[in-house]
Amino acid sequence: MPRKAVTPRPAVSERDRQMEQLVSSLFQIIGEDGTREGLVETPARVRLAADEIFSGYRQDPKKILKTFTKDVCKEMVILKNCEFYSTCEHHLFPFFGHISIGYLPNGRIVGISKLARLVDCFARRLQIQERMTAQIADAIEGVLDARGVYVMCEATHFCMTSRGIRKQSASMVTSAIRGAFELNESLRLAFLAAVTGNISLK
Length: 202
Hints:
This protein is an alpha+beta fold. It folds into 2 domains: 14-53, no CATH class; 60-195, GTP cyclohydrolase I, C-terminal domain/NADPH-dependent 7-cyano-7-deazaguanine reductase, N-terminal domain (GTP Cyclohydrolase I, domain 2). The chain is 40% helix and 23% strand. It contains 8 helices and 7 strands. It has helices at residues 14-30, 42-53, 61-64, 112-123, 129-144, 158-161, 180-183, 185-195; strands spanning 67-68, 77-88, 94-104, 109-110, 126-127, 148-157, 172-179. The chain has a 5-stranded mixed sheet, with helices on both faces. The chain has a two-stranded antiparallel sheet with strand order 1-4. Strand 2 (77-88) and strand 3 form a beta hairpin. The longest helix has 17 residues, at 14-30. The protein is elongated. The model has no long low-confidence stretch (mean pLDDT 92).
């Protein structure tokens, strides 16, 4: 019976080799056999996953937020319930949830998909929720020169649900408020009404 051909593994860089070695070393430290069938390809899988999970380090928020100056509105623009996945820098556990963004244009707007890409840019890094929320608001305020920005984030943290205090139903809410939203309560209430379902943008 002819022998099955083995597909040669593509060459990996020194950086990739080091990352895979770290995973293999972890197996050894915790008492696992990294050569058994279920784990032998895991270091390469982890490396590929890490390239995606931490891809935000290779992205520039200023390049993501391409702006438009024609047909610009003055009223509030909202992206509601944008899903995100991130990694807690304290335990390297995932946290995930939804982000809602509102901004008041000041002569420039941005494609709505770019706001979602901006969320991923900051989420796909080692993060804490508070900083990520502020970074998104600061980027929008800075690049768009927006009159006001409101970012609200609600997330579930695996470092809290699966270890430690183990509160599976707990979630964390953070917000970052900039410009006109800080000064005008009616604007804040209009944003909150919109993102909670009772839409009113007056």
